[in-house]
Amino acid sequence: MVMDVYGIIGWPVSHSLSPVMHNAAFRALEIPAVYGLFPVAPEDLKAALEGLKALNIRGVSVTIPHKENVIPHLDALNEVAWQIGAVNTILHREKKLLGFNTDWIGVKEALGEVIVLRGKRAVVVGAGGAARAVVYALKHEGAEVVIYNRTWEKARDLAERFSVEARPWEELPRAKGEVLVQTTSVGLKEDVSPVPKEVLSGFQVVMDIVYTPLETRLLREAREMGCTVVHGLKMLVYQGAEQFRLFTGQEPPVGLMEEAALAALKGE
Ligand code: ATR
């Protein structure tokens, strides 16, 4: 039987949850395809992308540190990916590599489960690569976005890029709004939070894009302050589900993908 091959390119990729999510979905829908890990060092990126064509790999997820650097090597870029300035999904069709971004859909759908964003004030903590898809999603859904970042210039540049507001990092303890999204790596495998707990009391919904641990200190404190919390794993699952739609043209079994990711995260 001929199997379609998909995978993820990144450096490192060994801890990625994407293979378990996509393979679980392929199995459930009886699609003859397999999804693997492709560790690609930065200096090998161009050759790896040429290799996708040569080996007829049907599509790949793209993760850190390649999301921006793949762009010059693609044959076409979808409008939203161009606006965000990052690609997390590449489709290979008829010897052409096409770039997409599904991260923002992950943010939109994860938050959309718990709140209508239109007209809400949304605080974004951080202004790195991950913040771009978050700001795009919030703005697209009609929220009023305010960015706080430790390095002012990065907050200002990101705010300018998407025509939203930036505030100085020192003002974060007085931040107000309905939604707060944490986009930095603070809290990753460490029990620390970049947001003072008292700030959270005014917010309805708090989301963290970090998902190891599943419940970061920020989310634990937000829960204690009575906020609705959105785990980073939700964003991961929804961006993967949209990727699956692009890869296969079929409706993804989202619940199953979430269960598979959760089980892998818990080491089951
Ligand atoms: P990513 O692509 O994962 O977003 P990045 O582009 O390196 O990674 O961005 C990291 C983000 O986390 C930045 O907003 C960074 O703030 P600076 O612009 O000031 O560097 C933020 N960050 C990292 N460590 C931080 C810390 N200890 N406190 C506050 N912000 C931090």
Please specify the SSE layout and strand pairing.
Layout: E1 4-10, H1 18-28, E2 33-39, H2 45-54, E3 59-62, E4 76-77, H3 79-84, E5 89-93, E6 96-100, H4 103-112, E7 121-125, H5 129-140, E8 144-149, H6 152-161, E9 165-168, E10 179-182, E11 205-208, H7 217-224, E12 228-230, H8 232-248, H9 254-265
Parallel strand pairs: 1-2, 1-3, 4-6, 7-8, 7-10, 8-9, 10-11, 11-12
Antiparallel strand pairs: 3-5, 5-6
Helix pairs in contact: 1-8, 1-9, 4-5, 4-8, 8-9
The structure holds 2'-monophosphoadenosine-5'-diphosphate.
Characterise the protein shown here.
With 268 residues, the chain is of the alpha/beta class. It has two domains: 4-101 and 234-265, Rossmann fold (3-Layer(aba) Sandwich); 105-230, Rossmann fold (3-Layer(aba) Sandwich), CATH 3.40.50. The chain is 36% helix and 21% strand. A six-stranded mixed beta sheet has the order 2-1-3-5-6-4, with helices on both faces. It has a six-stranded parallel beta sheet with strand order 9-8-7-10-11-12, with helices on both faces. Strand 7, helix 5 and strand 8 (144-149) form a beta-alpha-beta unit. Helix 4 (103-112) crosses helix 8 (232-248). The structure holds 2'-monophosphoadenosine-5'-diphosphate. 2'-monophosphoadenosine-5'-diphosphate is lined by residues 126-131, 149-151, 154, 183-186, 194.
